[in-house]
Amino acid sequence: MNRLHLPLKMVALAAALVAGPAFATNGYFPHGYGIRAKGMGGASVAMTEDSMGGANNPATMVWAGSRLDAGLELFSPHRDAERSGAGFATLNGSVDSDSKYFLVPELGYNRMLNNDLSVGVTVYGNGGMNTDYPEGNFNCGGGAANMLCGSGGLGVDLMQLVVAPTVSYKINSSHSVGASLLLGYQQFKAKGLQAFDNAPGFPPFTGAPGSVTNNGYSRSHGFGIRLGYYGRLTDVLSIGAAYAPKMNMSRFKEYAGLFADNGDFDIPAHFAVGLSFMPVPAVTVALDYQRIKYSGVGSVGNASSVPLPLGAAGGPGFGWRDIDVLKLGVQWRIDSAWTLRAGLNRGQNPVTSENVTFNILAPGVMKQHYTGGFTWAMSPTDELSASLMIAPRQSVSGPSMFNAVMGAGAGGSRVIIRTPPTVAPAKRVPMTTSTSPLDSRSIMVTTSLTRCWPSASNVTNTAAPGRLRAYSTPVWMAAPWPRFTGWRITWAPARSAISAVSSRLPSSTHTTCSKTVRRSPITSPMTCASLNAGTMIQTSR
């Protein structure tokens, strides 16, 4: 196998696959880069276990060793928008985005030149925006129209790809620095915005008619840099920091009448600091703080109400504000083969209520993300990792932009955008409903293939502390989850070693009582662990 051609071919493949639509979660940035980081809420700045440092912290690559990481993400956001209270009833209504499934690949490659120096490359999707609303739910006076009074479907498709060649160097045994050259590519298209393209019957919104909508894909290129630092302060505490200034991108010429500054759409500056702590040898806790400066890009940060034509210097944008993101993750090495992860990502909503109408196109309103994942080391050189992200629905509401055109109240008293959509319960009284709001999911699977590069002398297989001894002395009683130490193993015949209640779905109990019942019975605590959860609902008639 040619050791050089394989990484180059995989870089090319990832670049081709990433060039598809995506919709991210901290604004339009992903909640994390790399399957390991995504399983820990995105916390990664002070972690050194994979080759995704070009996207997270270049200084960590020299600690990761020679390795190849390839991953694929299935992202499923659900978005809808609603307008109500309009003086013209045909402007009221709601609509769901049709595009709901996206594949986002990623690739990281690192090569140790010596013990203190590594070179590598990270290929990742920086984020994107994608909406696809159907026509026909609205009428703006000229027949069937989309929600923004254009013809045909309404939506945008933005994709950003970054290829990051990276150099990482150990200053000494505890500290390192690194730098990544960021080579950016992005593509964009918009459809259904005819009302903003100086259409008959509408005000002259743009200074460049014909460059607003339905022009197919426009492509842009640019470059930037990411700098990083990593330090092992003690045996159990590490810190990291990374900074990427704004990436200067070429303009979207086909949409020079839509985006501010004649079609300019740079990638905003962002920085992150983090730490990792090992309270016990098998457990790592990581915490990151990230700031994304959306306001520094005019087409994103300028208010949609700016009294200038679309596409003009300093013209209207989406009105996004800068956001702060906290990422908390926990990693538990069960043994030499299995590692479990969990995390929480808490960001801010960049969309403000006064800019809600224009952000029907880009409803980046998600704030809370819950994550989990695992790694299975199949051999000393091969591993399989997976992660899951679930985000509760969020919404933003505000006055309709059309009121400025049609008069106060004519265009609608309120516009709501939601990600994911709200599910309305059936109208029945009395009622008790139980639904999961966690409709936006991201599932990632990756594999690490390092067997082609390290020699036998460079491969170390270390068991978790005390684990081999623990396996050699089984005991007899099982403890509730989570299992850390001191549990016992239950021995039983094969037919008896099953759950007391076997079910593919969580068990449920529905208790109905009369009006005369004043006190509900209380069940005693469960005395054993179960793989199935129970739900009890009490209603009165």
Features:
mainly beta, Porin, 14-stranded antiparallel β-barrel, 7 helices, 23 strands, elongated, disordered N terminus
Structure overview:
With 541 residues, the chain is mainly beta. The chain has a single domain, classed as Porin. 8% of the residues lie in helices and 38% in strands. The chain is built from 7 helices and 23 strands. It has helices at 5-18, 35-39, 61-64, 260-263, 298-301, 403-406, 467-472, and strands at 67-76, 80-84, 93-96, 102-114, 117-130, 138-139, 144-145, 155-170, 175-191, 218-232, 237-244, 248-249, 270-280, 283-292, 323-333, 338-346, 368-377, 382-391, 394-398, 414-419, 440-449, 507-513, 534-540. Strands 1-4-5-8-9-10-11-13-14-15-16-17-18-21 form a 14-stranded antiparallel barrel. Residues 1-22 and 421-541 have low confidence and may be disordered.
Give me the secondary-structure topology.
Blueprint: H1 5-18, H2 35-39, H3 61-64, E1 67-76, E2 80-84, E3 93-96, E4 102-114, E5 117-130, E6 138-139, E7 144-145, E8 155-170, E9 175-191, E10 218-232, E11 237-244, E12 248-249, H4 260-263, E13 270-280, E14 283-292, H5 298-301, E15 323-333, E16 338-346, E17 368-377, E18 382-391, E19 394-398, H6 403-406, E20 414-419, E21 440-449, H7 467-472, E22 507-513, E23 534-540
CATH architecture label name: Beta Barrel
Strand content: 35-45%
State the distance separating the first and last CA atoms: 72 Å
CATH superfamily, by name, is: Outer membrane protein transport protein (OMPP1/FadL/TodX)
- Count of alpha and pi helical runs: 7
Using the coordinates above, name the CATH class: Mainly Beta
CATH topology: Porin
Uncertain segments of ≥5 residues (pLDDT<50)?
1-22, 421-541
Query: How many structural domains?
Result: 1
Query: Could you state the oligomeric state of the chains shown?
Result: single chain
Strand order in the sheet with the most strands? 1-4-5-8-9-10-11-13-14-15-16-17-18-21
Q: What would you call the shape?
A: elongated
Report mean pLDDT, rounded to a whole number: 77
DSSP helix fraction: under 10%
Largest sheet features: 14 strands, antiparallel, barrel
Structural class: mainly beta
What is Rg?
26 Å
Number of strands: 23
- What is the H/E string? HHHEEEEEEEEEEEEHEEHEEEEEHEEHEE
